[in-house]
Write a structure and sequence with these properties.
Length: 251
């Protein structure tokens, strides 16, 4: 699952977005950061306690050697759980950003023990022309295996999308996501700045028939985002994320 309530409010059409949560959504996006950031997120899917996710991300930018980040997350309960810790790096070259990430995943099932696997991911972002952005991301390129039984592997996910800002207050985003063993999912979202520090967001996903809504607020160095999503059969989901930006000189 992509991280960050901003992404969730846009139906996770986030492959073109820069920022802290790009560390998971498209690692190339952390290359745009000029100040250290740390963020936390909590999510609940469909009102089910076992479907809670908590995550911690941090990114440290350097002036010459790119930007580096660490991500940690935990999902599930005592019956089934999934945890990860990852390290990513990205570098910006003109209008292009490139990044790579390695994650260690642990999946545990009560009564069956746990397994670990390492996934490798790469991503890229670019501003094609002014205000038109492109992003591409490949998760688990190495098709990490969890078990030899029925060749069980973590999913390999490919994403590509565009974002366009027709004018300063409006952002339109769309992307296609494809898991190797499933049909493609088309996602689209829009973000409108109602006030200078108060965005409104909405989106939809064709594969899940999910509608999403969200908002956010910036208070000095703290960015707070919330998103709500509704799917016809499973129910409603909630996402909350906070990002703190440290005061340091600009590059």
């Amino acid at each position: 699952m992509p991280f960050g309530a901003r992404a969730a409010g846009l139906a996770n059409a986030s492959v073109t977005h820069p920022g802290l949560w790009a560390l998971q959504n498209n690692v190339a996006g952390i290359a745009s950061l000029t100040k250290p950031q740390v963020g936390v997120q909590t999510s609940n899917q469909f009102g089910i306690r076992a479907f809670n996710t908590v995550a911690l991300h941090s990114v440290y930018p350097t002036t010459r050697y790119g930007n580096y980040g660490i991500s940690i997350s935990s999902f599930g309960d005592d019956l089934y759980s999934q945890q990860h810790i990852g390290f990513g790096a990205a570098h910006k070259l003109g209008q292009f950003s490139l990044g790579a990430k390695a994650d260690v995943w642990q999946v545990a099932v009560q009564g069956y023990g746990s397994r670990k696997a390492v996934t490798l991911s790469i991503g890229g972002q670019a501003e094609i022309i002014p205000d038109l952005y492109f992003g591409v991301h490949a998760f688990n390129l190495n098709q990490a295996k969890l078990s030899s039984f029925e060749d069980e592997r973590l999913p390999t996910i490919l994403k590509a999308g565009l974002a366009y800002r027709p004018y300063k207050k409006l952002l339109l985003a769309a992307e296609t996501e494809k898991q190797i063993e499933f049909d493609a999912d088309f996602k689209a979202g829009l973000e409108y700045m109602l006030l200078e520090k108060l965005p409104l967001r909405s989106g939809f996903s064709t594969q899940t028939n999910q509608l999403t809504f969200g908002t956010g607020f910036t208070a000095r160095q703290l960015q707070i985002d919330y998103a709500f999503s509704s799917a016809t059969l499973p129910g409603n989901s909630h996402h909350l994320s906070l990002v703190y930006t440290f005061r340091t000189p600009e590059r």
